[in-house]
Write a structure and sequence with these properties.
The chain contains eight helices and 17 strands. The chain has helices at about 5-10, 15-25, 120-125, 145-155, 190-195, 230-240, 245-265, 270-285, and strands at about 5, 30, 35, 40-45, 50, 55, 65-70, 100, 110-115, 135-140, 155, 160, 165-170, 175-185, 200-210, 215, 225. The radius of gyration is 23 Å and the shape is elongated.
């Protein structure tokens, strides 16, 4: 299929759409060995040999964002040498190759964010951004106010003192307690280890929120694509918590993705317009 040259270059992640146009005007782009300077030129990304400054342009998948309700008893990987159930077993129908952002352990369930947007994935998991992750946790025994205070003050484990961002009791039963715990820099099995240390082993753990994303009533084992509003609110929160670094990269990248969606006149055009609005917002905040 023939596609405008600047669009092919932007989709491949070589440069933004506008930067690609400048590269074409400057004679830095060749198609099958011939220099192309005309912006309206089209090529077939599957058949034509396209180079920018001598480097071959390789196609890149459209940016994809989704959430999965990971069931208990599933490993957060795309393959497992032990033959256990893996998250890709639940992603049938997803054409893009997406990767999990962070992990949920084998015995936990809940919201798992997946994307092929490497920059956003890095921002979500990087300690600099302090992205909040909220869990509903069922523990053995009735947690007293003293136990709650211990959690809030931090619990000393063999690898150091661990703290929670917020903890509150949401339900009390005869023999167990339900808590809602928010972490800003979760480490491997942190909640389970902290609760074990204060004498209240975890019986059930479910992630219900990641930054601005809500699991809601998504059933276990099912996935859905993020809405334009969810993508926008996530990016804006990352900008607010981590400063301008992510915003600067996101604005250019999201504009390219948006223009692609609008040019293709496909259903994701609504997403494309939302991303254009977001990129304008982010760039406007830089000025």
């Amino acid at each position: 299929m023939l596609v405008r040259l600047q669009k092919i270059i932007a989709q491949a992640g070589v440069a933004s759409r506008r930067a690609a146009e400048e590269l074409i005007r400057a004679g830095a782009v060749t198609v099958n060995g011939k220099i192309v300077r005309e912006l309206g030129t089209k090529a077939d990304p599957q058949k034509d040999h396209i180079k920018v400054r001598g480097r071959l342009v390789q196609s890149k998948e459209p940016l994809t964002y989704l959430m999965l309700h990971k069931p208990k008893g599933v490993v957060t990987t795309l393959s497992d040498p032990q033959g256990r159930p893996i998250i890709s077993d639940f992603l049938r129908g997803v054409k893009a190759r997406v990767y999990p952002v962070g992990r949920l352990d084998y015995d936990s369930e809940g919201l798992l964010f997946l994307t092929n947007d490497g920059e956003l994935a890095h921002a979500v998991t990087h300690p600099r951004y302090g992205v909040p992750k909220t869990y509903q946790v069922k523990v053995k025994g009735v947690l007293t106010d003293e136990g709650l205070a211990k959690l809030q003050a931090g619990v000393t484990l063999p690898d150091g003192k661990k703290a929670v961002g917020r903890v509150e009791k949401i339900r009390k039963m005869a023999a167990n307690s339900w808590l809602e715990i928010t972490l800003h820099e979760g480490q491997k099995r942190q909640i389970r280890r902290m609760m074990e240390e204060i004498g209240h082993p975890v019986l059930k753990l479910k992630r219900v929120r990641l930054a601005t994303l809500e699991l809601g009533d998504l059933p276990p084992g099912r996935y859905r694509y993020l809405t334009p509003e969810e993508i926008q609110s996530l990016a804006v929160q990352l900008e607010a918590e981590g400063g301008r670094t992510y915003a600067q990269a996101a604005a250019s990248r999201m504009t390219d993705q948006a223009l692609q969606a609008l040019d293709d006149a496909q259903p994701q055009g609504e997403t494309g317009q939302a991303l254009i609005d977001l990129s304008n917002h982010l760039l406007g905040r830089q000025e």
